[in-house]
Amino acid sequence: MALTVGVIGGGQLARMMIPAAVALGIDLRVLAEHEGMSAALAATGVGDYRDLDTVVAFADTVDVITFDHEHVPQEILRELVRRGVPVHPGPDALLYAQDKLLMRERLTELGLPVPDWARIENSEQLGAFLAEHGGRAVVKTARGGYDGKGVRVVAHEHEADDWFAALAEDANGGALLVEELVEFRRELAQVVARRPSGETALWPVVETVQRGGVCAEVIAPAPSSVGRVADVAADIAVAVAEGIGVTGVLAVELFETTDDRLLVNELAMRPHNSGHWSIDGATTSQFEQHLRAVLDLPLGATRARDTWSVMVNVFGGPADGTLGDRYGQALAAHPMVKVHNYGKASRPGRKVGHVTTGGEDLDDVMYRARATAAFLQD
Amino acid sequence: MALTVGVIGGGQLARMMIPAAVALGIDLRVLAEHEGMSAALAATGVGDYRDLDTVVAFADTVDVITFDHEHVPQEILRELVRRGVPVHPGPDALLYAQDKLLMRERLTELGLPVPDWARIENSEQLGAFLAEHGGRAVVKTARGGYDGKGVRVVAHEHEADDWFAALAEDANGGALLVEELVEFRRELAQVVARRPSGETALWPVVETVQRGGVCAEVIAPAPSSVGRVADVAADIAVAVAEGIGVTGVLAVELFETTDDRLLVNELAMRPHNSGHWSIDGATTSQFEQHLRAVLDLPLGATRARDTWSVMVNVFGGPADGTLGDRYGQALAAHPMVKVHNYGKASRPGRKVGHVTTGGEDLDDVMYRARATAAFLQD
C-alpha cells in the first residue's frame, strides 16, 4: 500500500514537503490554486479550495488531507470529515488558526498566557481598551490576516473605523480583536508536531526576527533559551497542541516580554517559516515530520545538527530573472550554505526562498546566512 | 532563466536528484525507460534511450543532459554533442565507464594503480594469465556488467569459454578483461565531483561492504583512513577525474590490499551507492553536487556532518506490500534513522531503498542502521 497524502494549496510549504515525500516513498498530491505554482511538480489538480466539489474530488484520490495554508472554509472541511476523509489538522483545530478571536478565547479558557485582549465591535469599545492599556494597542481582524496584514497598531479609538465599517457590511457581522501592545524583548517560536494517536515531538525553541511584520531571520536554538525559556515554550506548545487537538505541525509564535514572561502571539497549524531551518539543521525536518504526523506514523528525532542554525529569508530576487542567475556568486562565496529556491517569479518584497547554514560560532553562522541571502536578492 | 537538467534513465539515482532539484529551483526532467519508475515524479518523457530520435527530442527540452546510468550508446551521445547539447559526463569520459578494457588501458596510461590485467580473446590467453598469477583470476566482460554481473572468478582456462563463444558471435568481436585476484583487506570508494570548468570536490573516502557482489553497507569515513589512505584515495580520484575529463560525480571503487596499496577496481560516472550516505551525512549530498557540477555551478562543501555515518541498503521488502507497511515498527524503534524508499515494488534481492544514520559511536550507529534495514526488509 502506497501512502498517499493530499495537500490543499500549492505554495512553498507544499513544495518543501516534496523532498520528504520522495525520501519516504509517500505519494504526495497537491491541489494547487493555479498552474505553475511553487509546488507544481506534485500538483495533480488545479482548482478552487473554496469549491466543495473540487475539494471532494481531490480528496477521493488520497488517504489523508492536509494543508499548505489555513484558508479552506470550515463547511468544506466538515463535509470531508462527514465523508470519512482523515483531515489533519481537523476543522475543530483549524478553527483556531482561522479566527484570532476564537483563538484568544480558547487559549484563555485553557489557562495559557496571552496578551490582554478584548472582543470589540465599535470605536467606543476600542477607546475603552486604549484607556485601560496606556493609550496604545494592537487591533487585528479576526480572519484573513497574515505576514503583518490585518494588524494595526493604534493610539486613537477612530484608527480602526474602516475595519468596523467593513464588519458592519459583512453579513456575518463579527468583531475585531484588540490586544495590549506587549513590551517584548524578542519574539520566539516553538514548533511541535502531534500525531492523531497523541505522540508529540518538539524542536528547540527558536528566535524569530521580524521586519515589517514579516519573518526575516530565525536563530535555532534561541540564544540563552536553554533551561527555563525552552521548558516554558515547550510546555505551552504541547498544551496548545493537546488542548486544541492539533494534528500535524503546529507553530506557536511567542513574545518574550521585558518582564520575562512568554505570551502566545499567533498559531499556525502547518509547517511554518520559523521551522524552515529544520530541513538542514535538524535530524527530522518539519516537513518530513508533518507528513509522518498526518499519516499517524512514528515521529522522527528533532535534534539540532549544529550548535547554531540560522535561516534567512530571501525577498524579491533579481528584477529581470530568477534566483538561479545569482548562484554563481552566492554558491562560490558560501559553499557551506544551503539554498532553498521556491521557484517563484521575482517581485519586490516577495518571499522567494530562504537560506540556512549552521556551525559553532553564531556570529560566523549569521554572517554566512545573511551574506548569501544578500547575494541572491536585490 | 530557470536551470533545466535532463536525466536519461528513471531509476533511484534520478529519483534522489529530485529533492536537490526542488531545493535549488532546478527544473529536473527525466527520460524514463517506462511508466511508474522510481523517478516517475520528474519524468517528462518515456522512451528508449537507445533510440536517437527519442533522445534528441528529449534533449531539446533541457539545458544539459546527464544520466541515471552509463548505458546510452556512444553514437547517440556524440550526436548530442555534435548538435551542441552540453552532455555531462561527455562521451569521451563515459567511454571508460562503459568499457572496462578501455578503462584499464587508460588508467594504466595515466600511471594509476590498478590490478595486473590483460586483454584476452581466447582460453589459451586466459591460461597463460592464470599461470602467471597463481592459478586464479577474475574474468570480466568489457561491457554490460554491474552489481556482480559479468564478473567471474576462475581457476581454469576453460571457465570463460561461454563468454569467448559469445564474443565470437558478436559482429563487433572484442575481448574479455582478466585481472589478478587482488588480496584485499577491504574495499573503499572515493567519490569526487568535477565541474566542466575544472573545480573538484571530494567527500571523505568510505568503506564499502559487498555481499554477493552487491554493495550492502557503507561506512563514512572509512575507519582508520585519516591521513595516508584518505590522501592517496583523494589523489587517485582527482587524477582519474582530470585524466579522463569526467564532469559530474565520479565514484572510484578501490581495493585496499593486504600489502597496503590502493588499486582502482571500478569507475562509475554518476552518483553512486557509495555516496548515498551524503544525503543525510554531508553538508552537500552527491545528488545536489552532481546537479551543481553538470550545470557548472560552484560546488558545495562536502564536510561530514557526523563523526560516523552508516548507510545500509534495503533489499527485497515485504513480499505482499511496500516498505511503507513496515514504517510503524521501524520508525518507532529508530527515530534517528533516515529512511529512503525508492518507490519500487518488492522483489527478492532487489535494492528497494536504503537507510542512513550518524553519530559519535560507530558500533551504535552501525547497529541502528542495520536494525532499521532489518525491520524494513524481509
Cα-atom radius of gyration of chain A: 21 Å
What is the CATH superfamily label of the largest domain in chain A?
A: ATP-grasp fold, B domain
CATH class of the largest domain in chain A: Alpha Beta
**Proper CATH architecture of the largest domain in chain A:** 2-Layer Sandwich
Q: Work out the largest interface and the residue count of each chain.
A: A-B, 43 and 43 residues
Query: Can you count the beta strands of chain A?
Result: 17
Largest sheet of chain A: 9 strands, antiparallel
Order of helices and strands of chain A: EHEEHEHHHEHEEHEEEEEHEEHHEHEEH
Oligomer: homodimer
Keywords:
alpha+beta; D-amino Acid Aminotransferase, Chain A, domain 1; 4-stranded parallel β-sheet; 3 domains; 12 helices; 31% helix; 378 residues; 17 strands; 9-stranded antiparallel β-sheet; Dna Ligase, domain 1; homodimer; Rossmann fold
Provide a concise account of the structure shown.
Chains A, B: It holds the Pfam family RS_preATP-grasp-like. Two copies of one chain form a homodimer. With 378 residues, the first copy, chain A, is α+β, with helices and mostly antiparallel strands.
